[in-house]
User: Fold this.
Amino acid sequence: MIVWLNGAFSGGKTSTAKELAELIPGSHLYDPEVTGGGLRYLLPAKRMNEVGDYQDLPIWRRMVVDTAAALLAELGGVLIVPMTLLRQEYRDEIFGALAARRIPVRHVVLTPDETILRRRIEGRVDYADDPARSESIRQWARDHLAPYLEALSWLRDDALAVDNSHLTPRETAERVAEAVRNGTAGFCPIVQTPEPTAQTLASGVLLFDEHDRVLLVDPTYKPGWEFPGGVVEPGEAPARAGMREVAEEIGIELTAVPRLLVVDWEPPKPPGFGGLRFLFDGGRLTSADAHRLLLPGSELRGWRFVTEDEAATMLPPVRLSRLRWALRARELGRPLNLEAGVPVGDPREPPAPRN
Assistant:
């Protein structure tokens, strides 16, 4: 299990984590700042300079998950992670990847009063012999105060909020430890399909509104938008898998088996194994149908009907190419067989969006 201490910079995470490690038997500390610092020695300076925060590097988010999992495998017990996560999509990605490894996360956010938080920031002296470096750290905390306050709206819903305005680190840790013991600490049931160990079959379903816009959903367990759908279970027909996923993900029961638009062979790309990807035409949803859309909070954060042009700004290249060929197949009235996103025997690039 992981106890993730979140909150503003200077909010008391590190000092609370050290006290918490003494209160929870068999627990160990892991500070992802160490992973971030190590990237300076692993990545070219040019790559590091492309981002203002190492959290924006996908490799950091992957390494945090891998390191946490490796530490738990090596040491067992409870891992205490003091780390600020203010971007919901990063929280989703990291916690979802941990869930895929069957590692439960207890999410706690420390919420001192803003006035007290500002006072703590101004009182920080991290390097007594280097005032300039200490001031740089204080400025970093100041710059991230507004994003923290903005993130509180979803953090309070997602995590156990502990107001440590007038608590010592020990008192704060005692409250967190008690919440972990009695099961009231913020459990994040973010779901992610376990990483495949071989080629997989997956089915997606395109659903359209009355303006012929296509429905995209925003998963909590991975970055980027997606079509409703998922992995085909053993012994399950691909079209039926798409119908099942639509019902599970958005609460819409399709009355007819959807028509195949494209089947795309996705080549292996380590560490991925590739496989076959089906896209089906689920038909048009009326306004009444759209109002009945339900989102399970553990899997999907949102949904939108979008034009093809809008989809180009939301989907990764592979899914965008698949969507564009699926829309062409819908116009042609016949399915297309793709390999790596291109119709077999047709060397053309994916079609441009329709006007």
